[in-house]
Prior knowledge:
The chain is mainly α and 103 residues long. Helix content is 50%, strand content 0%. It has helices at 2-5, 21-37, 45-57, 68-73, 80-84, 96-102.
Amino acid sequence: MCRLFGIKKTRSFLYHRQGNGQAERFNRTLLDMLSILVDENPGQWDDMLPFVMLAYNSSVHESTGVTPAIAMLGRELRLPLDVQIRNPPGREAQGLPDYIRET
Length: 103
């Protein structure tokens, strides 16, 4: 599959956390967020995972200044509140090209 798509696989050592810092940081953040939500019902962590991932992917990260959704998809995620509350007429959501032009 990797050859078909021209992907070069790289590997990191399993027990060498320093070599995989970004993944380790994400795992720690995910664990912290999940532990807050499932404190009383630890067996339900898998039910909360989609909500935690939505919160993570729609939060602005200090190091990049953008959300992971913008960084990976080029647009913001549509949150449940966005469906209930629409933008005022004439004020459409800002896309990535507009964001880049402003910064």
